[in-house]
Amino acid sequence: MRARPSVTTSTGPGPSSAAGTGERGAGNGVVLTVLHEDDLPPSRDLLHDLAGEVRYARRAELGDALRGSDALLMWDSFSPALREAWHHADALRWIHVAAAGVDRLLFDDLRASDVIVTNSRGVFDRPIAEYVLACVLAFAKDLPGSWRLQGEQRWRHRVTERIDGKTVMIVGTGAIGREIARMLRAVGLTVLGAGRSTRDGDADFGAVYDSSRLAALVADVDYLVNVAPLTGETRRLIDADVLAALKPAARLINVGRGETVDTEALVEALRSGRLAGAALDVFEEEPLPAGHPLWSFPQVLISPHMSGDAAGWQEALADTFLENLRRYVAGAPLINVVDKHLGFVVSP
């Protein structure tokens, strides 16, 4: 029987080979499968240096590749392939997802298993925080309005808003939410947090409130920033009641998951003028279909799920996985271990 490293946990491109005919590497006995679609991860040579065998598989090939595999890199992080091929995972001990969110990966059999799941927490924190700050400034300074007027060659003076002294509530108090909080506080906004429980004296948020009471908390909020992971508790968390509780001058910024916002309620709030605007990077259906009402609102900023994808993001994803692969081979604690029942990495 092939010797495998013990697994412990910690919170803290070129042509592919055919599935099941993996390339031999360092000879340490670890069999790694990489699920990909078109692109392969950078630093491919290092994968072969660290793992005993590396197999590459697209969705249709994953079942064959998983037989005898110890580890799976979900480079195609949104693929449903693992659920379909789960019965072939006869030796799987560890899955790494090349993304921060794991809601599209987790299913009942995986949750019930002993397989460890890690994610790419930390890669997207700063880029997403910069995106949120950019949206705040774009709304306050009416940059979309200036671009529209420029396209019409119209010179129309307007008075813009200041952002200092405005209040932002960040829904989701994990690593990305904390980076957003630090950046927005640095430019003068008052920052509050909404998470799983109420607490005072938080280093980044000051006060954190129970997100299940969100509608009762947002009356004085100027910007509601959603970065919550998708769980049973957060699905459509931002619903008609929350949107109605916001003041008409408020804006919503969603960089979490599309399913955490009730899209129909959002469309109605924008159409009726009960919400001043929204910046949306994620949607319940992606790509956002042509003809969807959200495309037509001038007060809505739409981007195609790219808020965290700054230059070098794929290299950063690969580096995060390689660090964990080194740890796995050495039997050292893995980083970014996901609580499979909560659906995210729990901060220490």
UniProtKB/TrEMBL annotation:
Residues 50-338 form the D-isomer specific 2-hydroxyacid dehydrogenase catalytic domain. Keywords: NAD, Oxidoreductase. Residues 1-25 are annotated as: Disordered. Residues 134-307 form the D-isomer specific 2-hydroxyacid dehydrogenase NAD-binding domain. Residues 1-21 have a biased composition (Low complexity). It holds the Pfam family 2-Hacid_dh. InterPro entries: D-isomer_2_OHA_DH_cat_dom, D-isomer_DH_NAD-bd, NAD(P)-bd_dom_sf. Belongs to the D-isomer specific 2-hydroxyacid dehydrogenase family. PANTHER family: 2-HACID_DH_C DOMAIN-CONTAINING PROTEIN, D-ISOMER SPECIFIC 2-HYDROXYACID DEHYDROGENASE NAD-BINDING DOMAIN-CONTAINING PROTEIN. This is D-2-hydroxyacid dehydrogenase. The lineage of its organism: Bacteria, Bacillati, Actinomycetota, Actinomycetes, Streptosporangiales.
